[in-house]
Amino acid sequence: MSSTVLKTTIRNLYREKVYAVINIAGLSLAIACCLILGLYLRSQLSYDKHNTKYKQIYRVVNEFNFGGKIDTFAVTPQLLGQMLKEEYAEVKDYVRFMTINQMVLMRSDNNKAFYWDTTAFASKNVFDYFDHKFIFGDPKTIKNERFVAVSESFAKKYWGNENPIGKAITSENNTAKITHVFADLPKNSHLRYDVLQSDDIPFFNAPEDANQRRQTLWSVGFYTYLIMPEDYDISRFKDISDSFYKRHMEDMGTSLKATWRAWIQPLATIHYNSDVGYDQPTGNKHYLYGFTAVGIFILLVACINYMNLATARSTKRAKEVGMRKILGSGRKRLIIQFMGEAIFFSIVALVFGYILVMLALTQTPINGLLDNSIVLKDLYKPHLILWMLGFSVALGIISGIYPALYLSSIAPLTALGGSHKAGKGSIRLREVLVLIQFMISVCVVACTLLMILQMRFVSNMPLGFNKENRLIVTLRTADVIDKEPTLKKELLKNSNILGISLSTDVIGNVQAINALQIDNKDGVAELVTVKNTRVGNDFIDVMGIKLKEGRDFSKRLLTDVGEAYIVNAAMVKKMGWDQALGKHIQGGKVIGVVEDFHYDSLKNALDPIVLQRYNGTQNIQAQNRNLAIMYLIVNIKGENTFKTLSFLEEKFAEFDPQHPFEFEFMDDSLNKLYLDEQKQMELIGIFAAVCIFISCMGLFGLAAFTTEQRTKEIGIRKVIGATTMQIITMLVRTILLLVVGGSVIASLIAYYAMDEYWLIDFAYRININMYLWVFVVSALIAATVAYLTVAVQSFKTAQANPIDALRYE
Amino acid sequence: MIIETSKLTKVYRTDEVETTALDAIEFNLKEGEFVSVMGPSGCGKSTLLHILGLIDNPTEGSYRFLGEEVSKYSESKRASLRKANIGFVFQSFNLIDELTVYENVELPLIYLKTPSNERKAKVDKVLEKLDMANRGKHFPRQLSGGQQQRAAVARAIVNEPNLILADEPTGNLDSKNSIEVMNMMKGLNEEGTTILMVTHSDEMAKFSSRVIQLLDGKVVSQ
Question: Which of A593, A650, A677, A731 has the smallest number of CB atoms closer than 10 Å to its CB?
Fold first, then answer.
């Protein structure tokens, strides 16, 4: 930009403050949104790439087919990696992980105790392939000893900034000494752990005998990562899988009527491209597409503002253009001037955009909604700043090119004669642009509303049990579980506690799926895979589940343990039973049928379920007694909750001094099942507001110019008798038509997107056809906001004495 | 009496200057009159016309229109009086470029909420009367100046107002067209319409029955 261009730009900016504010505010909001979304996307798309050797690391996943019932697993047999390495040259090495997916209480030697669900075991060579930044401990020695490495956050929680090497940490009677501290894993690592120990402990010992080894291949539990040559063609792994199956598994497979196969996934693709069972949390690619689309939308809306306002302003700028041309400025020079203005605007906007991002990340919960995946200090990295600078220049060019071409094309004489009006052509284009803006806004508003409706539907849907005032309390170790009857008796003395029962599973957790011998409708036993959970006495009553026929488990009948079953209506339907009571399951009998209840996320369909009475801890092997977990379900009165809770806590401390009191309200844990959806809803809501806001700012500016251009017409109409309302209506009509047009297109897009990509995740979902009013409401919201924007802007002119308008030219 | 004013005053104020455009004007207009307002540029004749036409408001003084004191009326009240009773003709025609002659003429009736069949009859009638029937579908820019002013007159009289205010209606026309328009105005006056016209031209003033002279915002003769 030459100095006169800069000068005129700044003077124009100063003279037309509203115009400048609208443009800069719109562009900076858009840049801020894009920066946030961009950083989020970058973090999501670089999942696991912090490992320098990520191109050589592949994860094995596998599939078991038992007589046609196919199950896929992200976890593999324990010895798979080792055996593959021994037998196939392509497999250079392997690393296996075993994650503990439940809360484990860890007590330090300075007697601090916290629960962690992020502990894992791994092969000793894990640090050769997976990058860790060591803070304490010598990484060179790591292979010579048994390592117990913890994350920085973990260490800080117990020992602050002290060097924790050599400190002891105890969980359920196992004590380990910390050998290394590593920097917290980046958020975009699909494996997450705060404690990583080497797997050279007896628990993981593998049998030496070849036959016994082969038998272990039929059970899974370990994540296996293979080190393969870079650019390995993953389809070639089929040969390895086939030959491995033939060599080690086929004989047993034939007798079990089962087959097995495995395939591999490049490390960097796991998070967004894996679709197997028993996996770490994976990402949904559709959300990334959605976020990208929203980012582009917002940019588009802001660019459109710029184009619209710049061309609308042409009437005002025409004189300058004419004069410059007469004084000898070529068209090219003018194009450069107007482009320069646009770039100037977007660079100023970049500065404000950066400030907005910092405010958003530090002062608002937005980063939390993005799983804290944005690291604030990344914002100051020079290459990002350079990138953003380039981005702003590109943005300036994109939004400035059309106005520059348009403005520079104004002929000098018409411009000076003052008869130049923003041409018909540019009005048409502006209308299209406004239509696109409102199409985008209505689309995001409609999506937000549909999400809200679905979430409301989910939380209002009768679940078949009572979720209010139910507490879930975790009981740890078999010894504590054994004390449950006494505990129950003690607790029930409190009149605020209405009932207590026990369950092996909590809501939303995958329950045991077992193959059971069950009578079919003709009374012949057959093997049926079904969800199977064990519950304590009074479960049905405490949960508020409705009994359809038969009876609940009885304390008095000892035979109820192991021999009595309660099934849900879905189970009766699945089996085709006419008379459910008395049907045999595993030698026992069905004693009751309950109405269906949703003991899982409504994203999953309701499954048949078989309830068995809990049979105590006597079957648990001695070494696992400390790991046993059961959940107490406590039905409490709605009032005096706080008092009841402290009573419970007090009693628990007496019964189990080893573990802190761990509880959750059932409705909270139900809501947790939809945390992702809740976050998406809030995010899209924020972006919807931003979209509408930017669109309206543009509209506000545009309305100012239209009103100005039509001032004389307004005067004439008023003289003839038009009222203020009629004038405003006239000015708003075109815009409302555009909003309506945009809304129609937007509704179709929103309908399709929600129906195909978002609601599809729910087994129980709203039918959009029943909620078509959402689209009307979204359109109305957009129309109202647009109407107000234009009305406010034109009210002054419409209200004024007509002579002021007539005198205008 | 259609118009009675007493001490009607208009003062324009900017940051530094205060200009008195009208200075205590006493003026009456009887039904059926055709009055011309004359005077040099800047004497306040257009301002007077605008205030009397209820498209601008006086700073001080009283203005009774059809017996109603309107000087303190709000814009919306003035608007409703205006649209029912006053037709305007301007020097620069002030037709709306985007509308056809027919639509321009129809506009006042739309604002009066006249039913559409009645509207059509009235517009056809007035276009016929002013010899513009075959121009209804034309846009203003397709017409000569005289034709445009006739269309503007048609628009002014379509709702049969009590009063027509004309602000130099022939100022942008050649002499032939000027005479034509003035004859038309004369005809309307003879049919009973009261007319108040601002003009520079003695020749045009001759068409009226009374002339008032303005100088520096004051009536010097009437």
Answer: A650
Provide the β-strand partners of residue A564: A589
CB B180 within 8 A of CB B146: yes
Query: What residues form DSSP beta bridges with B165?
Result: B88, B196
Q: What is the mean pLDDT of residues A688-697?
A: 85
* Alpha carbon separation from A801 to A741, B14, B52 (Å, rounded): 34, 17, 13
Kindly give, in sequence order, each residue whose CB lies less than 8 Å from that of residue A658, ignoring residues fewer than 6 positions away: A105, A476, A477, A480
Per residue in A36-84, pLDDT tens?
988 888 888 999 999 999 999 999 999 998 877 788 899 999 999 999 9
pLDDT at A510: 55
Using CA atoms, how far apart are residues A768 and A752, in angstroms rounded to an integer?
10
- Using the beta-carbon criterion (under 8 Å), do B55 and A801 form an inter-chain contact? yes
DSSP assignment letter at A185: P
- Contact, A142 vs A172, CB < 8 A? no
If DSSP codes are grouped into helix, strand and coil, which group holds residue A730?
helix
Within an 8 Å CB–CB cutoff, is residue B108 touching chain A?
yes
Could you tell me if A276 and A72 are in contact, meaning their C-beta atoms sit under 8 angstroms apart?
A: yes
A153 lies within 8 A of chain B by CB:
no
Q: How far apart are CA A564 and CA A590, in angstroms?
A: 6
Q: Do B55 and A713 touch (CB under 8 A)?
A: no
- Alpha-carbon distance A640 to A647, whole Å? 11
Confidence band (pLDDT; 50, 70, 90) for A750? very high
Which of B75, B86, B104, B168 is the best mutation test for A, with the most CBs of A within 10 A? B75
Distance CA A241, CA A518 (A): 35
**Closest Cα partner for A394 from A740, A31, A116?**
A31
Q: Which residues pair with A532 in a beta bridge?
A: A610
Tokens of A137: 């401990």
- The Cα B29–Cα B45 span in angstroms is 15
The pLDDT tens digits for B86-98 are 998 988 888 888 8
Chain B residue at shortest CA distance from A799: B75
ipTM: 0.83
In angstroms, the CA A572 to CA A579 distance is 9
Q: How far A714 CA lies from chain B's nearest CA (Å)?
A: 10
3-state secondary structure of A188: coil
Average pLDDT over residues A195-201: 90
Q: What is the DSSP string of A40-106?
A: HHHHHHTTTTTSTTGGGEEEEEEEEEETTEEEEESSB-TTHHHHHHHH-TT--EEEEEEEE-S-EEE
The answer to whether the CB of A471 falls within 8 A of the CB of A636 is yes
Q: How many angstroms separate the CA atoms of A497 and A488, rounded?
A: 10
Rounded Cα gap, residues A546 and A569, in angstroms: 11
Token pair of A51 as six digits: 């490992």
Burial of A807 (0-12, 13-18, 19+ CB in 10 A): middle
Residue A546: DSSP 8-state: P
Q: What is the pLDDT of residues A384-439, one digit of tens each?
A: 999 999 999 999 998 888 888 888 887 776 655 555 555 555 567 778 888 888 89
> Could you tell me the pTM of the whole model?
0.76
Question: For chain A, what is the mean pLDDT?
Answer: 86
The DSSP bridge pattern shows strands B86-90 and B163-167 to be parallel
β-pairing, A148-151 with A195-198? Answer: antiparallel
Lowest mean pLDDT among A169-178, A694-703, B187-196: A694-703
Distance CA B222, CA B211 (A): 6
- DSSP per-residue letters across A614-636: ---STTS-GGGGGG-EEEEEEEE
**How far, in Å, are A262, A344, A517, B127 from residue A252 at the CA level?**
17, 73, 22, 102
Q: What is the helix (H) or strand (E) element at residue B99, kind and residue range?
A: none
Please provide the size of chain B in residues: 222
The CA distance from B198 to B176, in Å, is: 19
